[in-house]
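Assemble and predict.
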Amino acid sequence: MKLTSKPLILHFMLIAAAAVFATNAVAAGWQPKKPVEFVIMAGPGGGADKMARLMQTIIEKHNFSPKPFIPVNKPGGSGAEALVHLKSKTGDNHTVMVTLNSFYTTPLRQPKLGINSLDYTPIARMAEDTFLLWVHKDSGIKSLDDFVAAAKAKGGDWIMAGTGKGQEDELLTNFLNSTYGLKIKYVPFKGGGRVAKELAGKHANSTVNNPSEQLGFFQAGDTVALAAFTADRLPMFPDVPTFTELGHKYVYYMQRSVVGTPGMSAEAAEFYRDVFAKVYDSDEWQEYKKKKSLLGDFLTGDELKAYWTNEIANHKQMLKDIGEIK
Amino acid sequence: MRRAELLMAIALAIFSVYLMWKSAELPIGWIPDEGPGGGAFPFWLSAAMLVCSVWVIVRWFRQITPQSRSSEPFFDSRAQAMILLVVGALTLMVGSIHFIGVYGAVPLFFVFYMRFLGQHSWAKTLTIAIAAPVVTFFFFEILLHITLPKGYTEPLFYPLYDIFM
Amino acid sequence: MEILQLLLDGFVVALQPTNLFLVIVGCAVGLFIGAMPGLGSVNGVAILLPVTFIVPPTSAIIFLAAIYYGAMYGGAISSIMLGIPGASTAVATTFDGRPLAIQGMADKALVAAAVASFAGGTISVILFTGFAPPLAHVALAFGSAEEFALMMLAFGTFIGLGGDDIPKTLISIFIGLILSSVGLDILSGQPRLIFGDIPGFFHGINFLVLAIGIYGIGEILWTIESSRGEVSVSQAVVTVRRILGSLKELLKSAKTILMGSLLGYFVGLLPAAGATPGSIMAYGFAKTMSKNPDSYGKGNIDGVAAPESANNAASTGSMLPMLTLGIPGSPTTAILLGGMVIWGLEPGPRLFVEQTEFVWGLIASLYVANFFSIVLNIAFIPIFIWVLKLSFTILAPIIFVLCVVGGYAPTQDMHDVWLMLLFGVVGYLMRKLDYPMAPMVLAIVLGPLAESSLRQALLQSHGSMLVFFERPISGPIMVFALLLFLMPAIKAGKKMITRRLQKVP
């Protein structure tokens, strides 16, 4: 039971304060009354964290919200902690969360949590991150065919470094194993930056990093991209073919989305949709998307929900294929 | 002291058995080609802890450690009262944060501690009891943007947010 | 002398009025944030990140670096004054800093911490200036096997830190390691040791929760019991002459500081290691090398100087993998990395070539930030000492409240506050029975790194333990670590042999 009735004096104070400090909030409907808790479903330093902090910075720079967004990292249990936290705040209008694909995989892999991803309020899909297959320059591998030959020769000694278990990097590794008859060994690490370093230091033979994670080494010429898990070639890597071109129609993206608590009020959801639409349209965000080879248009409301429904079905199948769930 | 030493060792032994049981939810053996399973690390550590707890108990019976020979009480009665009072007050403070928030619980805690345990003057007590939450608010919420729990007192802060944020 | 020219250009950037102002403000803010238990550089940097969007990137990173440095200095303050390590990097500082404060020599310890931090910072910045790109290669060569060997070395150096009671010391280490495995098992992706299915355990047990519980709450309970709640913690005095005197005395610690700085810097360089193992190893080595190891833990000034020089050197060191490899060596550098992305800079091997103004402006500002941090730190010492003079019935509730708020702040979860209270009370009871607490706190910091690197290396080697001994870097480190482990046995054996020999004739 939450206390809803405020003392009368408080109402007066609120009204007075609102009258004095109402700046540009003339036509707006619902507005946050206190700082907004901006939950990040990953630890500091990862792709989701960087993006969340960029969004927060854009919101603050352009004054898109009358109250600040305060980032809180909740990486526990591959996002389980964050999902449970938001669920426990059902109906709360001052909590939103930045998610990635563990938004689908974690509830599927941990049914004990009793979480349905579709319960969360869809606010905005800000981008889709892309994946490429990377090897070290010194391996001499130039194409996917070389890669398959080399990996086949090495069998179980071929090491793929990736982030997390039963998540995107392992799903992609499994695709390579089953499609090309390989026995690549998958070794999970904490964070994409660390994975990129494993390849650059030749502790691993290949990775399926996002461009943003490998960019530094790629530009220095240490690592080479062989193929992209995208529908079309990426503008930044015009010479890198897609798997579809190479004969296997396989496309995989990482969503970068913002969700609200389950049961958030419609007015509040509308406010956040508006804020993130503005963030999406800002020069900073568009510039970032271009530089990091991000795809994906702005999606919200029912469209976003439909996208989720589809992705959940896909992930369910993929997780079944690697034996993570039954 | 002698009894406390034994009780602590037994408690630790029970705790380590619980931990072993809990760790065994994940594989605790050596997975061929991969190394130890997910539960192995905590499981074998708990097992080692159990061995050490038993070791402490054995030494207690043989009266090797100074604690197992000491006939002094674990707490003298005055210290015991004092510790219980402070731990109780702390528990109450943390518990009440869920309802009246940090800004309600902290001043009450100061009043209790300074006035009733420390016998400081009311003037001194109230100065600190009021200054502490004010400083905390400005340092954490305004400067560092860390929101502290407020329980049911949350709406009282909306005007403050309007003014300072 | 291209480097000197670049550095000079960097100083021109760093000493511009706006940047200089930002450095001073940053150091002061950082100092206070660092001095609060529970808050460290990561909070200061994270919160001020958005602010930096309004100034040019170079000024922004200068500001954040100043906060980082200030907070590193500040961490020692809470360790010495309150006995609570404000961050994991300052754990080792409490071992001797706290006894010094209790003996009324808090000013001496604070001066030692400040000077050691300054020396550590300066030495590491000089190394950074001269050898950044080649050292990046060293960092790259460190894989999981090397990381595990390094962790073993860290464990080896603190084997001598426990009490005399062997089973109790071992229990303390085991509890720390087990607590560190709560949360998520990275390698299998499964939740682990989620007691009672409470979601708060998903994020694991934060080092700070244990440290604040044991050193904050437990320590005050201890003081209440031993003093019957009346005596003040210490009678400290501070005068300019005493500070100058302490400075002079510190000359004797020069060797320790140099060792701590070099060690800290090289450990900090390695991705994933960061400043904590560096400071612990520096303490352990200082103790091992000392002629008088028994004085450690009882208020030896070298015991403050070693970890403080190491943790500052390591925090500079950990900027290197961040800038050149894009890998954060600590949570703070993780946030800084996010900042670089916001400013549109791409960390990586090419950063040093393409963004010279940024890189050298940053390096120069590290020198400047270091200088202002020590000046501010020493200037504030009288204020900190004044706090210690408060009556205990005022200081105790203030520390309790700081513990509660500090336990809450990092994860913003009341679950952690309850856990902290529990650890405080249980830790206090265990301490009464002579269970040493330091090994537990150190184990919870090193445990996760050791376990994941061990298992990653074994995965890569198909379960063969030989991987740790075959590789050129991990092999020697591992052997050295094993020697450290065997040291007590060797010493005991030696004693026995000499005794026998004496008996025989």
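The radius of gyration of chain B is 24 Å.
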